[in-house]
From TrEMBL:
Domain of life: Bacteria
Protein name, entry field: Aldehyde dehydrogenase
Catalytic residue list: E254
InterPro entries: Ald_DH/histidinol_DH (IPR016161), Ald_DH_C (IPR016163), Ald_DH_CS_CYS (IPR016160), Ald_DH_CS_GLU (IPR029510), Ald_DH_N (IPR016162), Aldehyde_DH_dom (IPR015590), OHmuconic_semiald_DH (IPR017628)
Presence of the UniProt keyword Oxidoreductase in the record: yes
Occurrences of domain Aldehyde dehydrogenase (ranges): 12-482
Family per record: Belongs to the aldehyde dehydrogenase family.
Length: 486
């Protein structure tokens, strides 16, 4: 049994109240351990430590040294790679190859990229004319925003948390992280790496606990938290934005999606099937960028549906440690209930079930886990709730289309606008589609192919702001202009 503690001011501490909550395995619902449940006392202590660190060694540290320290953090993650992989596997139950090849390496990369960017970013400068002819020189300096509240979700916990902590620290801020209550392990483990490489106490703090009326909300309401970066549900973003209004704090939001995958008849068929399969079912469909609406051009519709169905029916359910398993459970029993309620609703709304639709037959030792089948529906109108609402499960609805203009209208008719994946061999068509679809991220003949220098974020109700590359600096630093009369 594990006991996961907060990491505050460089130390692993329990809650003052002694309160804890349970962490159960998504694979079999077995009790894995307990987690300290933080409240106002822990949030106050973490924010005070973060504020003090801003004025201490961290605040005074030259950029070069800070950059070197963040490279050391990345190397420290790599050194403890197996521990991070094991912790993330235990928390999420996702297949070893996803965690070891995609999610944990990104944790290290998230520190390196922003360390390099902050080292190389040029300063903005304007020379201006003045009536006396002598002129004036303007230059802008970047200052850290201060204490950043980082609120992160459970679906790719280490990747998504470090995607915020990396740039925040690179820019000289300090952080108070409230990881998802479902996935506390890797954020805590990162505290060990921070100490091992000599990051000053108070720079990186972690408080565990819940969201509303609890540690999450308390971070977002704290007077000394200067800005809040959040990844999670749009509804939670709305609550956090209201909290941030008090004190006029800045927010950066990466929120929900109901992303469209668009497959043209001229696509590379096998690549499109595999691409849509990954985008809809990787991580058991628990990816914000994932595809839950698929539009396939009519000449290949039947063939495509049959091929995707066949692909779904060969997944191998199992624990991350089971040889050959490539498909994990959902994160929790609660999420399983939500996903299964959508599976039921699809049928009530008149869907044709192509595959899945329920719970797989699992061996006795895994029967209590949060397993659900990959599921495909056809035949629903665009007004059906499973076509409109984010389910965040391994499922998609597939609908035929005829014309490019028609599919643009279908793809855009949703309150979300995070990403899209388009499959065609006609690049002119791909460029037109990319310009016409209201999303922050378009992939053509690919999905989740990430260059960390590019702007990342959602349109419409999928987010506010862009992170990635120099765009992260817009949020994690404040530009101050200096004007010198010559
Ligand atoms: N756009 C993106 O990049 C992106 C990436 C990953 C996940 N997501 C979205 O995240 C969601 C799944 O994650 P989730 O279920 O953990 O999201 P969630 O919004 O339920 O929780 C996210 C975090 O917010 C905290 N929280 C909840 N209520 C809060 C409140 N009132 N104040 C402060 N903190 C609060 C939670 O404890 C957790 O740490 C999906 O909607 C998914 O699309 C988006
Ligand atoms: O589930 C969401 C995955 C989001 C991915 C990123 O935020 C990223 O690649 O930076």
């Amino acid at each position: 049994m594990s006991h996961t503690l907060h990491f505050i001011n460089g130390e692993f501490v329990p809650s003052a109240s002694g309160k804890t909550f349970e962490k159960r395995s998504p694979c079999d619902n077995r009790l894995m351990g307990t987690v300290a449940e933080g409240g106002q006392t822990e949030v106050d202590a973490a924010v005070a430590a973060a504020k003090a660190a801003l004025h201490g060694d961290w605040g005074k540290m030259p950029t070069d040294k800070r950059v070197a320290m963040l490279h050391a953090v990345a190397d420290g993650i790599t050194k403890r790679f197996d521990d991070f992989v094991a912790a993330e596997e235990a928390d999420t139950g996702q297949p070893h190859h996803v965690i070891a090849h995609a999610f944990v390496p990104r944790g290290a990369a998230n520190f390196k990229i922003f360390a390099d960017i902050i080292k190389n970013v040029p300063a903005e400068s304007f020379v201006m004319d003045t009536p006396d002819g002598a002129g004036a020189l303007n230059y802008a300096i970047r200052k850290p925003k201060g204490v950043i509240g980082v609120i992160s979700p459970w679906n790719a916990p280490f990747l998504l948390m470090t995607w915020k902590v990396g740039p925040a620290l690179a820019c000289g801020n300090t952080v108070v992280v409230k990881p998802s209550e479902e996935t506390p392990a890797t954020a805590t483990l990162l505290g060990e790496v921070m100490n091992a490489v000599g990051v000053p106490a108070g720079v990186y703090n972690v408080v565990h606990g819940f969201g509303p009326d609890a540690a999450g909300e308390q971070v977002t309401r704290h007077d000394d938290v200067d800005a809040i970066t959040f990844t999670g549900e749009t509804r939670t973003g709305t609550a956090i934005m209201k909290a941030a209004a008090d004190g006029i704090r800045d927010v950066s939001f990466e929120l929900g999606g109901k992303n469209a995958g668009i497959v043209f008849a001229d696509c590379d068929f096998d690549a499109a099937v595999e691409g849509i399969f990954r985008s809809a079912f990787m991580n058991t469909g628990q990816v914000c960028l994932g595809t839950e609406r698929v539009y396939v051009q009519r000449p290949i519709f039947e063939r495509f549906v049959a091929a995707l169905k066949a692909r779904c029916e060969v997944v191998k359910y199992g624990r991350p440690s089971d040889a050959g398993s490539n498909y994990g459970p959902l994160i929790s029993q609660e999420h399983k209930r939500k996903v299964l309620s959508y599976y039921a609703r699809a049928m009530q709304e008149g869907a044709t079930l192509i595959t899945g639709g329920g719970v797989p037959d699992m061996p006795a030792e895994l029967r209590e886990g949060a397993w659900v089948q990959p599921t495909i529906w056809t035949g629903l109108p665009e007004t059906a709730s499973v076509v409109r609402e984010e389910i965040f499960g391994p499922c998609c609805h597939i609908r035929p289309f005829d014309e490019e203009d028609e599919v643009v209208v279908l793809a855009n008719a949703n309150r979300y606008g995070l990403s899209t994946t388009i499959w065609t061999e006609n690049l002119k068509c791909a460029h037109r589609m990319a310009a016409a679809i209201d999303v922050g991220i378009t992939w053509v003949n690919s999905w989740f192919l990430r260059d960390l220098r590019t702007p990342f974020g959602g349109s419409k109700q999928s987010g506010i702001g862009r992170e990635g590359g120099v765009h992260s600096l817009e949020f994690y630093t404040e530009m101050r202009n200096v004007c010198i009369k010559l």
